[in-house]
Amino acid sequence: MKIMISKLLMREFRKYEKGEKDKITLLDNIERKQPTSGVKWTPVKFINKMIDDINFFYENEFKEEAKHPIQQISLLSEVETFEENKNMYIGEVRDEANEVWADFVIANADKFGNTLITQQLMSDLIEKIAVDINYIFSSSPKKFVYLTFYIDSSPGDTLPKTGKSVLSSVKTLGYKIVEMFPSKKNKLAAPYMSTTELIRDISEDYTASKRKSSLSLFTDDLTNDTLKLTIDGAVGQHSKYYSLYLLAYYRLKTPRLIFELEENIPSDLKKIERIFNTGQHSPKLKDAEILEENFQPYVVSDIPEGKGVNLIYYGAPGSGKSYRVNQKYNSKNSKRITFYPDYDYNDFVGGLKPVKEPEKTMEYKFVSGPLVDIIISAINNPLENFYLIIEELNRANAPSVFGDTFQLLDRDKNTGISTFSIFNSSVGEYIDNAVSVPSDFKDTGIVFPGNLSIIATLNPADQMVFSLDSAFQRRWQMVYVPIDWTEENVVEGPVEGFEGLTWKKVGKTLNIVLSENGIEEDSLLGQYYITDEEIKDIDLISSKLIGYLWNDVLKYQKDTIFKTKTLSQTIKKFKSHGYKSIFQPDIVEMFSEE
């Protein structure tokens, strides 16, 4: 028998041995939490301790494997590694035929809580069940967690609630715990024997800690138990241990049918190939499995298809983003909204709100937002195209506003329908009641229909905006709108305060000046930045044009074009004496050039 570790971890170990790294997080965590203080750990010493612990584990759990123990090493080069793998803290035990006998995860952290184990385990586990969901039920290869954290170092005589629920969930999924430093408290976390027990533990934990996220179990006379995951806060580390709980729940809710042949079973029964209602043929009455319908890809049915897309038009202010969107997508089937800093999920998707009907008491009902409304319209009119137009997308925290509907932005390129569905009982039930076709969105999940497109505009130069993270942005097609002074409908009259100069002359000259001073194109002035009405109003020109240059574009280099010291002084002089009184002499000269 032999162990193998990831190339990533081996790389860290080698850098440490060569003196290229002062410390390794794994070894540093061990030294700080080990039961005996002062022990210094090296990569070779750590691997040999892990080998000893695994061999001891064999002796107690698997007598046959214990006959062929893993040999200790003298040099790091004696340890083999995987091919490139993005998960650092994983390993394998292989037998003499080089077959994988066991998978293991090296769990380490500087404290005992939800990050311990889940941090290293979930990435690897999710990858494996994506290939085969049966991995969480399998007994081969063996599965264990090599726990480097000394559990008894946590204060008190009991386990922290989160730590206990994580350990119990891991054991429920069939993992053994191999401890680097054997503890008494590990025994306090037994595998869950029922979904009720699992939910009780987790609910108590998250109610007590007042987390924004929660797991709840619902039961009624019409349906089976349903596990509901609600994430109200940001999805970060939460998602890892919630995923662990969901998988443990799934294993408990999906029992394996195992039949052992006995000599006294009639021969005709031995020939049965179809096991009850599992939908599976089995040549032997053994290891027949219930179908994992919960983890099958979402199958689209009766959802309108089309060429639905997600588009973002971006460019300098006044470059014509909204004008282009309006020309191309404005129709009776378009709905236009504008994001602003306080705009949120309830405004966009919908939420439970108090509703008072005549002669009835106040009650909470789901009130739809524009996204749900246009989804319903698109489903009810499958032969027509619908457009949700979002102006100023980055004026609000867009990923937060979209919330769980963020996932629906992934679309099938052939049908335009969302690749994945989301489950939101309030939204799903509302859509089911509102659409004119038979549907079951509450239970089968919500998707964007293929005849619905989402069109957005944003101004990257706006100083008072939220940035879009890469995960959100890559789900959109980006359409850049350049500044083009040859476009139709550009204002042609003289601009108030510029002594008869046209907007085209003013705008183009200012853009040349700004570009020469290193200002990016998306902060320049678009051809539609000033309208017909605005060029005649000295107050609007002062606030919109002069104010934009002072506050946003030239925030840290005002003196490159202005000769005034404050914005109030600048506006006062501009209103009284025009542009020549506020700009540097060389800038004024540029306005007179042809």
From TrEMBL:
Residue ranges constituting the ATPase dynein-related AAA domain according to the UniProt record: 311-475
Cleaved signal peptide residues: none
Gene Ontology molecular-function annotations: ATP binding; ATP hydrolysis activity
InterPro entries per the UniProt record, alphabetical: ATPase_dyneun-rel_AAA (IPR011704), Methyl-DNA_Rec/Restrict_Enz (IPR052934), P-loop_NTPase (IPR027417)
Pfam families: AAA_5
Membrane-spanning parts: none
Name of the molecule in the record: Dynein-related subfamily AAA family protein
Lineage, uppermost ranks: Bacteria, Bacillati, Bacillota, Bacilli, Lactobacillales
